User: Fold this.
Amino acid sequence: MRNAYENSIYCLMNTNDRIVLLVADSGTGKYSDIVQQYPDRVIDFGIAECNMVAAAAGFAKEGWIPVVYANNSFLVYRAYEFIRNDVCFQNLNVKFVGLAAGVIANTLGPTHHTLEDIAALRVLPNLTLLSPASPKEVSVVLEKAIEFDGPVYIRLGKAFEREIYETESPFEIGENTIISQGNDLTIIATGSIITDAIEAAKDLKMGGITSEIINVSTLKPFSSKEIIESAIKTGKVITIEEHSIIGGLGGAVSEVLCEAGISVVFERMGFKDVFCNDYGWHQDLKRMYGLSPQHIFDTCKKVYSKRK
Amino acid sequence: MIDLQGKSLKMRRKIIRLAYLGGTGHIASSLSSLDIIVALYCSKVLVFDAKNPLMSARDRFILSKGHAAMALYNVLCEEGFFSWNELKTFCKPGTIFGGEPTHIISGVECATGALGHGLSFGVGMALSAKIRKQSHLTYVLTGDGECQEGSIWEAAMSIAQNNLNNLIWIIDRNNLQATGRINKITDIDPLEVKLKSFGFNVVIIDGHNYDELVNTFNDTKKQLEKPLVIIANTIKGQGISLLEDKDDNHYKIPNLTEYKIIVDELGLTWEEFERL
Assistant:
């Protein structure tokens, strides 16, 4: 996803001269090409996220489209008050791109993992919250975020995410994408973990269980239409996210279903109110915390076998 | 010659009137900053147009110590950004004039109140002007207690790194913070030495002396070599004996007896004060 983002921002800065790229010692890969190409429009603020976010607000006030790029954990947790007061409250046109959502920081451990950002940001008025599922979706998400007038946070993964779209992602802000149709289960996922859900769904299908998989790449404003329709059809809903089960996708789906008065068998998969205090590669960590394709398969079977 | 002292006295009275009408407000902090803001706006150091508050050639002014809102409101009102009748709704239900200023008020560049934000916001504005080769200046007024915030020093580093000689940082140096004397809580001294070591030129002036204020501000209009900090020595609660330099004046709202003493000290009868 990082490569997809860097390639996209490089192209977008060429076509849109209102974009400035603000980083906090966080530029790698294609970053040097971007600096070389647009030396006036890239500013490295160093390891000082709070100052960077408020400065981004100042840029936006002057009519720029600042793209703020840093690791999710340092950006959201360190600079939260600045995101809230300087950007969201004043509804300024800043785009946050947070790198390494979930546990893709791998062996760097709990200080670098980001498992609470959706919960922390979902409550902020004016903020649009996007979570692309695959590299191809990253480029569309970034393009639409730049077109959109207002604060946006993009929850990026990092590397080795698998692709789920053959051609372009049909992503639109505020709309969910149905990845596969099914009648027995509704699987709702956000971010790259959807590929694990797709893998599990293939195995389920071999056993005769068909799953409707919904990719929620806009976490806010949260679209309920497809979710409610699918939940009514299957009566069995599983949410999957590389995030705490509190306050994230699972929380948003339960709010929607409760308010609509729909009773379903329901299971939230995610980090169960714990820090990820283990070390390993991305797939290892997900497995250690009950989020491997096998875990998803088992949970789906369990939910499927429960009576509504 | 504009009578800045006269304007200042008029606005001191109005600050007290607002606090009285609204039943709230940071009186002492507003009195500390008032002369600085009056000197910037009323002596026409700042380029602005009250009828076109977002004019691109305007100088930007950010009140980072947002709790001095009553000083800024009164100066903006005096300069025609809005009327006194509108401002008199201060802190009442339905008003846009709260205890801390927000961006929806004409002439207010950004919402402040949480400390340690405005200087960084100004960094973004000043960087923008540099990229676009615009000649306007960005002035940011912070408190001295506010310099305890870590983000202030993040901003200071980026001002020096980017040689933002188009950003003028003014520190309202009244030596007090909300709950007492700064040097008894967490000292920021030696402030001048710290600022110089961060790469600033530092000028120290009397923040209530209009000759010094206006001359220093006029000098900022010349092309500056290095980023500049103006430390304006002030008295928190200036002009009102009951409040001046008192450790507990930050949240102080006078009672009726005290209001009468203050109004008298400001040269008004109570009847005149009621008619304001």
Q: What stands out?
A: The CA atoms of residues 175 and 249 of chain A lie 14 Å apart. Chain A touches chain B at residues 20, 40-41, 43, 45-46, 48, 50-62, 64, 66, 81-82, 85-86, 89-90 (CB under 8 Å). Chain A has twelve helices and twelve strands.
